Amino acid sequence: MELRQLHYFLTLCEHLHFSRAAEALGISQPTLSQQIKVLEDEIGMPLFDRIGKRTMKTAAGDILEKQGKAIQQAVANVQAELKDLQQEHRGHLRVAVLPSDLDYRLPPILTHFYESFPHVSLAIISSVHIVQRVLANEVDIGVALAGEVCEQLCVEQFYEESYALFVPPTHELASASFVTPTQIATLPMMLYPTGYVGRQLLERWAQAQGIQFTMLLETGTVTSLFELARRGVGVTIQPLRLGTHFQDHLIALPIHPSPTRTLAIYYRKDKYLSQAAQKFIEILLTHFN
C-alpha cells in the first residue's frame, strides 16, 4: 500500500462519491476507481459497496479508514518534526483563543514568545468553537474554558479565577463590600451574546442561584461592555483580573457566591507539538501562574 493510495482512499471516505472525490484530488474518476480497485485487490476484500449511485464503506473500509487516518497523522508528525529541526525556530503556529477577554493578556505573552522565536509566523484566532477547531486540525493550540473532555485531546488546566460585578463609581452599590445573586437579578445587565462560552457559564451560575438576569444589552466586545458600564448604561459581570485594565473608571464588586472559571490549554494527542508550540505553552503558564 502506497501513501498516495491511502490518501485517495481517505478522500473517498470523506466524500463517499467518486466524482467529487476525484475532483477534490485533481485526478480523473477512472484513475481514482482504478487505484481503489488496486487497493482492494491488495487487501483481498472490498472497501466500498456501490449501490446504484450511492457509495458506502464496508466493514473493511471502516477499519482501514480508522487506521489510515492514524498512519496519515503519523507521517505528518514525522514531516513536521523534521521540518521543525531543519528550520531552526521558523515556521507557523496557530493558536485559538476566547474572543475579547484574552486580548489584554496576550501582548506580554507574545512579546516574550518573539524574544525566543522571532521568525515564527503566529496566527491568533478568536473563536467560540475552540475545541472543535483543535480537533479539526485548524489550529495547533486552543486556550479555552476547561470542561470539555475528549479522548483525542490533551487538556492542561492552568488558571482559575472569580468573576466580579463591574459598576461605575456613581452607582448606588459602588460602596458595597460585595453583592448577592438576588441583588444582581434586579440590575440592567450587559453580557456577551447567547452562545458565547462566558455567557453560558454565567447563565448556568444564575440558574444554580435561582435567578434570571435582567438583560439590557448583548455585545461580543468586552471593551464596549466596560465602556458602557463606565458611562452608567448598565452593569456587567466579567473575570475579576480582566477588570484591572479599567480599574480607574469602574468598581469591581465581589459576588457571594461567585461564578468562577478555569482556563485550559487544548492540543491533539496524536499531533507533533513543535518547539514553538511548546514554548508558547510554557510562556502562557508562566504568565498566568
UniProtKB/TrEMBL annotation:
<feature type="coiled-coil region">
    <location>
        <begin position="68"/>
        <end position="95"/>
    </location>
</feature>
<keyword id="KW-0238">DNA-binding</keyword>
<protein>
    <submittedName>
        <fullName>LysR family transcriptional regulator</fullName>
    </submittedName>
</protein>
<dbReference type="InterPro" id="IPR000847">
    <property type="entry name" value="LysR_HTH_N"/>
</dbReference>
<dbReference type="InterPro" id="IPR005119">
    <property type="entry name" value="LysR_subst-bd"/>
</dbReference>
<dbReference type="InterPro" id="IPR036388">
    <property type="entry name" value="WH-like_DNA-bd_sf"/>
</dbReference>
<dbReference type="GO" id="GO:0003677">
    <property type="term" value="F:DNA binding"/>
</dbReference>
<keyword id="KW-0804">Transcription</keyword>
<feature type="domain" description="HTH lysR-type">
    <location>
        <begin position="1"/>
        <end position="58"/>
    </location>
</feature>
<keyword id="KW-0805">Transcription regulation</keyword>
<dbReference type="GO" id="GO:0005829">
    <property type="term" value="C:cytosol"/>
</dbReference>
<comment type="similarity">
    <text>Belongs to the LysR transcriptional regulatory family.</text>
</comment>
<dbReference type="InterPro" id="IPR050950">
    <property type="entry name" value="HTH-type_LysR_regulators"/>
</dbReference>
<keyword id="KW-0175">Coiled coil</keyword>
<dbReference type="InterPro" id="IPR036390">
    <property type="entry name" value="WH_DNA-bd_sf"/>
</dbReference>
<dbReference type="Pfam" id="PF00126">
    <property type="entry name" value="HTH_1"/>
</dbReference>
<dbReference type="Pfam" id="PF03466">
    <property type="entry name" value="LysR_substrate"/>
</dbReference>
<dbReference type="GO" id="GO:0003700">
    <property type="term" value="F:DNA-binding transcription factor activity"/>
</dbReference>
